[in-house]
Amino acid sequence: MRLAVTEGTVSGLVVWYVDVAGKTGTAEIDAGKKYINSWVVGFFPYDKPKYAFTVVMERGPHDNTIGGVYVMRQMFDWMNENTPEYLK
Question: What is the DSSP letter of 80?
């Protein structure tokens, strides 16, 4: 799961203040393949995990396969500013 962050679909979670591990996934939800559900799951800190996370984006456009990664990135940035003790 760390490789998905450093080299794959979760690269949006490469941040200087905490090492994260994660994985993305998608599911088509209609016959026309117009919409998908997408998600990212993971944990942090990578070396000594304390916390896990899941972000699910329901019924997004078919090409939005990593939208949850960007939502989680905003959360990590917010945590770094407001609650950095959780990132140690």
Answer: H
CATH number 3.40.718.10 given to 2-87: no
Instruction: Encode pLDDT of 31-82 as tens digits.
Output: 778 899 999 999 999 999 999 999 999 988 888 888 899 999 999 999 999 9
Burial class (CB in 10 A: 0-12, 13-18, 19+), 36: buried
Task: Give residue limits of the domains in the chain.
Answer: 2-87
Question: What DSSP assignment string belongs to 48-79?
Answer: S--EEEEEEEEEEETT-TTHHHHHHHHHHHHH
- d(C-alpha 39, C-alpha 81), whole Å: 24
pTM: 0.89
Three-state DSSP class for residue 8: coil
